Amino acid sequence: MLGRLLTIALIPTLVVASLAADLPPGATLLDGDLVWQTWGESHSFHSEEGRLPAYETNCVVSPDGGMVAYVSKGKLWACKTVGGPSSRLCDLPNTITEFWARPENVALARNREHLREFVRHGGARGLRQGLTTVLSLRWNAEGDDLTFTLLSRSEEPNRWTHRVMEASLAGGASEITTIPGGDNDSRAQFFYHFDVTRDRRFVIASAYGRPLIWNVTQNKPQATCFDFITPSRTSERHLAIEIDSRQLVLTDGQFRIIQRFDVYLDHRRCGLIWSDNERFAICRSYVEHPSNDWEGFRVDLKTGETRQLDGGYVSDRFQFTGRRGEFVRIAILPAPQGGYWDGGSGMVIELIPDRDGGIQRVTRFVRRFRPGENDDYQTYPLTLSNDTGTSFAMALPRVGNARTGYHYHLIDQQGHAEPFQPVIDDEYYTPYFPLAFADRGKSIVARDQARLFVIPIERVDGSESVNE
Predict the structure, then answer these.
(1) What is the pLDDT confidence band of residue 109, given thresholds at 50, 70 and 90?
(2) Residue 427 has what pLDDT?
(3) pLDDT digits (tens, 9 = 90+) for 290-318
(4) CA–CA separation, 453 vs 43, rounded Å?
(5) What is the DSSP letter of 389?
(6) Who has the most CB within 10 Å: 15, 76, 253, 328?
């Protein structure tokens, strides 16, 4: 038997903390008064770097799976994934969630339909212009410290500023550095990914994959010979593409090249995904604009062995499973006429094995929209994978005569799907939004419009298959 998700009771669109008792047996409330940072429901495919979009990382689970940190009500919070209470780490004044938490706004923030109308009529753009956005919330490797970035308008007209911050689980936050952004005519008008080195001497800021190395001590950018840099999750080293030679190189913590690989990427637009054990890398070259295609390969950095990969779109996401060179690919499918290129018209999850074995399709769906349905469409939400690529949380289209929209399912590696309970269609997406796997894949952190909770996974009986 495979895992079954415990039944979850329906949670109304507008709820208050007093409804915490409605949580089903086995589920644990983490925060009963949540205010989420949102422009409407954001989707999975904005990044060219194969990583989650920065605004999807405002709820992050610690490396050991035992803690969750999140942004709500203009504050940064943390609690254990086995249950609250949450501890306030620091205040985040004038941020998006502080705005939504104000008494005159909180009802709108917790009503999906009203919020969607607000976004549709341009309200989100105005908020971003006038308030501060929290980006790139990250745990350190030890799980006792967090970094994040505050993006806001600078005092200089048409420019942005990035305050890179550090917060301790003991409480309190301090500024690491401030990085200016470009003007409105610059492609790097602002950055959205930030990696802080362990010694806090450098920050790698990136936009559209192009890095800026910021020297914290000298408070200025550092000259770089790299087109793309990705840091290791287990050491102070970095994998990078050298601009002049187009060669794949390894650097130390000071960005000095310490090893060169017999690997070259021809295009300036490129991307790297690096395994946690630093042995394997996925190297991609992006076909020049206006195409969104890529071509690439996986390389064993120890032996030099490569495997050519079938290209997809630059928005494809990848995750090594920890079983040598095996990795998961989560990708959108070509949208039919009248469809959407955010995943809502079709998605696929594939498992690419170590060495030269055949690709395993975990699940796939293609959806054609009904006449007039576009008026009701809401952006396709995030698909999650656990660390080992054996369980996924994915929104699948409703079938039959049900209301248009999607219902989240738990899917195992063989493509067996179990719908998150209850199976309802009173919202476009139901029954709630999974945010992250926790406790080494034994539970899922999820939210509705006003609550954050954790759901244990016991077993899945695989009663439904979504493989075509």
Answers:
(1) confident
(2) 83
(3) 567 888 999 999 999 999 998 788 888 99
(4) 21
(5) S
(6) 76
Q: Which residues contact 148 (CB under 8 A, 6 or more apart)?
A: 76, 134, 135, 136, 137, 138, 164, 165, 167
**CA 453 to chain centroid:** 18
Distances (CA, A) of 203 to 149, 154, 224, 268: 11, 19, 13, 22
Written as one letter, the residue type at 20 is A
Q: Could you tell me the end-to-end alpha-carbon distance of the chain, in angstroms, rounded to an integer?
A: 22
Nearest Cα neighbor of 6 from 26, 23, 20, 22 is 26
* Percent above pLDDT 90 for the chain: 45
- Sequential DSSP letters for 155-223: SSTTEEEEEEEEEETTS-EEEEEEEEEEETTSTTSS--EEEE-TTSSEEEEEETTEEEEEETTTTEEE-
pLDDT for 50: 53
Query: Could you tell me if 161 and 152 are in contact, meaning their C-beta atoms sit under 8 angstroms apart?
Result: yes
Residue 79's nearest CA partner among 404, 453, 464 is 453
The CA distance from 234 to 40, in Å, is 35
Residue in the structure block whose two tokens are 């200016």: 180
Torsion of CA 182, 188, 191, 196, to 10 degrees: -90
Give the chain's length. Answer: 468
DSSP state of 440: G
Burial state string for 167-185 with b = 16 or more CB within 10 A and e = fewer than 16: bebeeebeebbbbebeeee
Token pair in block for residue 145: 């410290």
Rounded to the nearest 10°, the torsion over CA 63, 100, 52, 408 is: 90
Q: Is the peptide bond before 431 cis (omega within 30 degrees of 0)?
A: yes
DSSP for 294-349? EEEEEEETTT--EEEE---BTT-EEEE-SSTT-EEEEEE-PPPTT--TTTTTEEEE
Find tokens 């048409």 and name the residue. Answer: 158
| Orientation of helix 112-120 relative to helix 123-130, angle to 10° | 80
DSSP 26-52: T-EEEESS-----SSS--S---SSSS-
